[in-house]
Structures are given as C-alpha cells and as structure tokens.
Design brief:
The two termini are 47 Å apart. The chain is an alpha/beta fold. A hairpin with a 2-residue loop joins strand 3 and strand 4. The protein contains 24 helices and 15 strands.
Length: 550
C-alpha cells in the first residue's frame, strides 16, 4: 500500500528580510536564489504503513505461551497508557499531522524492530519522543532536543575540472556539451567561469550571515528531459536551449557554493544515486539526501522506479518548470472535477507538490519559485573585442519559424545604425531576448492578439497553466522601450514605426536598474516575505484578524 501524503508546511526561511540584489547582476542574483532554495525547506508529513489501531486506541502486546499454558486461565496484561505525554491543543498548532502519526504508532511501532531499538516501547511518552526527536511530526517535550547529524561545512569550490568530472554521460556524451560550453565560454574578454568566481566573494561581503557556516548539502540533480532524447544533440543545431541554460547555471552555482552533487542524465545513474540514500526499514537512519533537483519527466521516472524514495523525500523535490504550474493543475482531484473548463488532459500536472517547489525560468507567478538564469550585463570595451555596432539578428532557429516572416524581415533589414534582435513569435519565453538586450541590442517583441494560452494555442494545450502570453516574451514588456519594442510584426506600418524608434535610440548592454522584491513591496507599503504566510495561515490568527476587521 502506498504511504498516504499530507499537507506540507514550509519551514521559516533563514533569508527572510534579506535585501535581494538587482536583476542586472545576473550571476549574483542566481547565487542568492540558489541560496534561498537550499536554505529553506518544505516539509511533507508521511507514514510508511497503514493505520492499524484498535477500537480503544490502545496497543495490546500478546504474550508468548506454551501449549500447556494455553489451557490455563491467563490474567490480562495491563494496557499501556498510549495517551500519556500527548501534546496540548496549543502545542499542536504547528503540527497538524501529529495526531494521525500518534494513532498509527499505537500498533504500527511493532511492525519494524527499528522502533524498539530507537526507544519506542508502546507508551505515549515513547511515541512522542520518537515523533519529535527522530522525526519532526510532533512538538518536542520539555528538555528534549532533536537528533542532529554532524554536518560538514560547505566551502567554495572554484575547480571547474572537478565539476566537469561529474558531467559524464557514457550513453549520450553529447548531453553535457552545451552545459560545459556555457560554463567555460568566454563572455567578452573574460571567461564566464571567472565571473562566477568573482561573484562569490561579492556575496560573502554583502550577505556574510547567509554565506557563513553553511552545511554542505547532499544534492541529486537529474536532468530527466535529456534521458533518451535528442535535446542534447539539437543544442548545437537550433534546438531549444532554455532548460539547458537554466540547468547550466544551477549546476555551476551549487558547485561553487561547495555542495556535494550527484548529477545524472540517464536512468541507471540517477537510480544509483537514489539507492545511496534510500531509506532502510521504517525508521530514519544513515545518510539522508537534502535536495533533489529534477524536472517533470525526471520526477515521473523516479516515481515509477523508486516510488517509496519519492514519497519519503517529496518535500525535498525541486522541479525546474519553464512555464510554471498553477494550483488548478497541481491537484489531481481539482483538475478531474473541473476538466470541462480546464481542458481534457493534464499530463504535466497532478503532482500535488507545494507550488513553491516548481522553479520557473521567468517570474510568471508568486505561487511558483523564480529561479531564473544568469545574464551578464557588465559593460564592455568594444575596441577590445569583436562586437557588431549595427545589424539585424533574426530570432528564428528552425525553418518553419520563417514561413510567414518574409515581410517583417525585409522591413527591419532597412536598419543600419543600431543592433536589432527580431523575434518571429516563437520560441516562447526563451532566454535569448534577455541576453540580446544585455549585449546592447533592441528586441523587437512580436505582440499576440488575441493572447496565446492553453485554450487557444496547440503548443500550450497540455501545459499545466492557464497563463496567457500577450507577446513572445511578456516579461520583457515590463522592461519596455528603448530596450524592448513590443509590436504587431504582421502590421508593416506599425513595424516600420518601431524600427524608426529603434534607430533613434541610444542603448547599451544594460537592463536598467531593475526592481527587487523588497523595493517593489516597500513602494506599496508592503513587506516582501512569502515565508510569513504559513505563520498567519492558522485558525487562531485568522479569527483574530477577522475580529479586528468586523
């Protein structure tokens, strides 16, 4: 029987109140996002067996008898007090699953000898001690402390060779080629890796408390979309790069931060990594995995091959999800009940995770976590490197993208004084437009009318979101002119006007000042702190607030 899943409650983040850096410092930003991911936790409660309590809720331990003794009248053995030491209602406020775990323990503790070895003897106090110290389902008793593993402190690792030694795929060697090139490539007159190294001490200086005494985490990274596919091969032939860009930057960040990484792109390699940390028996023991980064394809494979591991570590899953996942598609039950208005199929949804466990490429929604990707915007001396001062680069990587682009291309080709990056409407929300703007080009962003989404566009028909796109890259609409000109590229007159505005612009490789979560919320008299929600989302807090409002 599969273990039942319960609601999760996020732990308080150690980065609350942190002032986040501006978007223009791409490398520094991703460092901090990764720090926030590995610094907090999202806790799911789980049990490994079904509830086996009797009617009275007490555990009856049978006596061993000989055949002769069976003929004799036996005195009943006193029942143990299984409710002794049970937490008060006030103590249970932060532990909604304590009661169900306690009820299971009344009989379930006898299903595995490991419970007795860890001090469980059938009494309520032993239940609470186990459920609060060995596990975290119930509050601690007075004077008790949780068992903590001695953890190695993370130290920065600037060895690119050590990282590349982990990027090995014997079955499909091409899978890691793009990632290696991106991490080691030259960005103007500097190697990208040199910029990564330079970003580390900047963060240590600016956020010293967050960067000191960090535990060295054990992390599995499984790039499921590369397993038995041609994504890696197509990366050098015009294929989609968004996922590879994000994975490259995440892997580099975690390595430089000094964490212990297991990186896999094939089924056999990820299963070996999982088996290294698989739970033995019903009790927690041995090395524990801290985080698992994967994608929806990778999660599906792990659920099929190592479901108990996935269930036990569900709170540690982080899914790279380019377009994001909304609540309607995250819940199997809700989608099933509303499929008439949501669409017939939901192959990428139904995982019932915390929405913050989905890591998006762009900041689509506050429900998901914005991981992003690195965009270097350091100013360059164009006399030292070979950079085109003007011209048009068309954002069309496949032949079919050019089918209706002839008139738009001819119109924009009149440009001679500025650099233009011309979008053709696809791919949607890729990293290339932002990188082009960072290098001093003006992005012509095709406007969509009507907007494209799950209910109107085949590409989005199975995506787990109802979000609609008003242009090829809606996020860059917020950046606006002069860097980005959003226009109906099928309207020749409007496109010509856009080109004229571009020619009158004087832009550099700078994304502007950007806006942090802290500054944006402060301007509206609010506080940037998503971790506060679990603290106020309690019955007594809500009743108190409602009382003040009435």
């Amino acid at each position: 029987m599969d273990p039942p899943l319960h609601e999760c409650s996020p732990c308080a983040s150690p980065f609350r109140g942190m002032r986040w850096p501006r978007l223009r410092r791409g490398t520094r930003l991703l460092f901090l996002v990764v720090l926030s991911l590995v610094g907090g936790c999202i806790v799911y409660e789980y049990s490994t067996l079904s509830h086996l309590t009797n009617i009275s809720g007490t555990a009856i331990v049978p006596e061993k008898t000989t055949p002769l003794e069976k003929t004799k009248r036996q005195e009943p053995k006193p029942t143990l007090n299984t409710e002794e030491c049970f937490p008060s209602e006030k103590e249970l406020a932060d532990f909604p699953n304590c009661r169900s775990k306690w009820d299971w323990m009344t009989e379930g503790w006898k299903t595995d000898a490991c419970y007795a070895k860890m001090g469980v003897n059938g009494t309520g106090c032993s239940f609470r001690r186990f459920l609060s110290t060995a596990e975290r389902h119930c509050p601690l008793m007075e004077g008790e402390t949780r068992k903590k593993e001695e953890r190695e402190i993370a130290k920065p690792n600037f060895s690119m060779n050590e990282l590349f030694a982990k990027l090995v795929d014997n079955k499909q060697p091409v899978n890691f080629e793009f990632i290696k090139k991106r991490i080691s490539s030259n960005e103007s007159i500097l190697r990208r890796w040199d910029m990564w190294q330079a970003a580390y001490p900047e963060n240590v200086q600016k956020h010293s408390k967050s960067m000191e005494n960090r535990p060295r985490l054990r992390i599995i990274l499984y790039l499921g979309f590369l397993t038995n596919t041609k994504f890696g091969e197509l990366s050098s032939k015009g294929g989609p790069l968004g996922e590879l860009v994000q994975w490259s930057d995440l892997i580099a960040s975690l390595h430089i931060l000094g964490h212990d990484l297991r990186i896999a792109t094939q089924q056999d390699s990820v299963l070996r990594a999982i088996d290294e940390f698989a739970r033995v028996g019903s009790c927690p023991s041995g090395k524990q995995i801290d985080l698992i980064f994967t994608d929806i394809i990778g999660l599906g494979l792990m659920q099929r091959k190592r479901r108990p591991f996935v269930v036990a570590n569900k709170c540690k899953m982080r899914l790279l999800d380019s377009f994001g996942t909304q609540a309607e598609f995250n819940s199997k039950e809700y989608f099933k009940a509303h499929k008439a208005e949501l669409g017939k199929t939901n192959p990428w949804g139904g995982h019932d995770l915390s929405l913050r466990q989905f890591l998006s490429l762009y900041p689509h929604t506050h429900d998901n976590t914005f991981l992003g990707f690195v965009v270097n915007t350091s100013k360059r001396n164009v006399t030292e490197i070979n950079v085109a001062r003007s011209g048009v680069l068309v954002y069309g990587k496949e032949k079919y993208m050019w089918e209706k682009a002839g008139e738009a291309v001819r119109t924009v080709m009149e440009v001679t004084e500025v650099k233009i990056f011309l979008g053709l409407g696809f791919p949607y929300e890729g990293p290339a437009p932002l990188e082009a703007v960072a290098h001093g080009a003006i992005f012509i962003n095709p406007r969509f009318s009507p907007p494209k989404g799950r209910l109107t566009e085949k590409f989005f028909a199975e995506k787990p979101t109802l979000r609609t796109l008003t242009s090829q890259c809606p996020y860059l609409e917020e950046l606006g002119e002069p860097w980005v000109i959003t226009v109906d590229t099928a309207n020749t007159t409007a496109l010509k006007e856009a080109v004229k505005r571009a020619m009158m612009s004087d832009v550099e490789g700078d994304l502007g000042p950007g806006a942090s979560c802290v500054s944006t919320c402060a301007s509206a008299g609010l506080r940037c702190d998503s971790a506060l929600f679990p603290l106020v989302n309690k019955k007594e807090k809500l009743e108190k607030m409602m009382g003040l409002l009435i």
